[in-house]
Design goal:
Blueprint lengths: L2 H11 L5 H20 L4 H8 L2 H20 L2 H12 L3 H44 L15 E6 L11 H11 L4 E7 L2 E6 L4 E6 L4 E7 L2 E4 L10 E5 L3 E7 L5 E6 L6 E6 L5 E3 L10 E5 L5 E4 L4 H50 L1
Parallel strand pairs: 1-3
Antiparallel strand pairs: 1-7, 2-3, 2-12, 4-5, 4-8, 5-6, 8-9, 9-10, 10-11, 12-13
Helix pairs in contact: 1-2, 1-4, 4-5, 4-8, 5-6, 5-8, 6-8
Length: about 350
């Protein structure tokens, strides 16, 4: 192999490096050839002494990346050095590939732990703000314009309560259940409203049509005296409803109103003082929401768990879990960094020893 062939192969092997670095290396080896030729050696002898130009190029790339890493000491320069070492041989490549995969996983887990920590912190702060000021509302839930019906019926006493009025039977059931008689149920995709004697409901369609209903003596009636399509019941498609108001005989109200911009239906209940609170509506189809009256005739929502508590619990779990995982990963990163630095220096020392030998 003559000088030109050697330098051409060396240049092709160095093509991943910056052009200035390649020019400097080629200039050094051109000068080396010139000095050796002056000493009476042939081009073939010089090329044979230098070895395979392709392997020489790989070793030179390792040296350049290693020196860059020694100056900058960052992850990207270390990865380039490891990649250059992997190009020296099959064994190095077999070792480097799983290591690079491990580093990618470690980076992903670090990112996930940071995201979980930040998300958990935000949720805890939201809960704190909600508890202190009521903002943001963590209990707001919307039903959307899905298919389904709003079904209104009057409370019907059980057979053994036939001697009681509907209101008396409802009050008796409330005592038996521990201050919990339901006035409104939600179960995907339908909403069921069960009126006691004296309760009233007003349905306003998205077109502005109003239907007012009331319950008297255990029967549902239209306030305008019109007939119901079905005895003691009335139904309207959810997607057609613009607003729904339930007013109990005790004066409490429940309001379900559609947002004109989003098309979603939000639920709110108001006590005697006019204080409004949002109603929790679980997203799972197997959940049922019951709007109930307590001993003070205030509306409450009975669900598996209160939404603010869920936000706090889930937020704390994310925050603590994310922070703990991040600390463990930092410890693992520190050990990995030290091991990687030792491996790179060992490999670089081997290359240096091989070149001097």
């Amino acid at each position: 192999m003559n000088q030109k062939s050697f330098l051409d192969q060396l240049e092709r092997g160095l093509q991943d490096l910056p052009r200035d670095a390649i020019s400097e290396i080629l200039s050094d080896y051109t000068e080396y050839f010139h000095d050796a030729l002056s000493d009476g050696r042939s081009e073939q002898e010089i090329a044979a002494a230098l070895g395979d130009p392709r392997r020489l190029a790989r070793e030179l790339k390792v040296q350049m990346h290693y020196r860059t890493w020694e100056r900058e000491r960052n992850v990207s320069s270390l990865m380039r050095t490891i990649g250059a070492i992997a190009g020296l041989g099959v064994l190095n490549f077999i070792l480097a590939v799983p290591f690079m995969f491990y580093l990618c996983l470690l980076t992903c887990f670090m990112a996930v732990s940071v995201i979980c920590s930040i998300t958990g912190l935000i949720m805890v702060l939201m809960w704190g703000s909600h508890t202190a000021t009521g903002w943001p509302s963590l209990q707001t839930a919307n039903l959307g314009p899905d298919d389904g019906y709003v079904n209104i019926t009057a409370f019907q006493p059980d057979s053994d309560d036939s001697s009681k009025t509907a209101k008396e039977a409802a009050d008796a059931r409330r005592k038996e259940m521990g201050s919990a008689t339901s006035a409104l149920h939600y179960h995907m995709p339908d909403i069921e409203v069960e009126l006691r004697d004296g309760d009233q409901i007003k349905l306003t369609s998205r077109k502005g049509e109003v239907v007012a209903l009331k319950s008297e003596h255990g029967h549902l009636q239209r306030a305008d005296g019109g007939k119901l399509e079905d005895d003691d019941s009335y139904s309207m498609r959810r997607r057609e409803i613009g607003k729904l108001n339930v007013v109990t005989a005790d004066g409490d109200t429940v309001q379900i109103e559609r947002d004109a911009k989003t098309g979603h239906i939000d639920w709110f209940s108001m006590d005697h003082a006019g204080v409004a609170s949002a109603i929790v509506v679980p997203k799972r189809a197997d959940d049922t929401v019951q709007l109930v009256m307590d001993d003070d005739d205030d509306f409450h929502v009975m669900t598996r768990a209160s939404t603010p508590k869920k936000v706090l619990g889930f937020g704390l779990a994310l925050l603590v879990g994310g922070v703990v995982c991040f600390i463990l990963l930092l410890w693992l990163v520190r050990i990995t960094w030290r091991g990687t630095v030792s491996f790179v220096r060992w490999q670089f020392g081997r290359i240096q020893d091989a070149r001097t030998a």
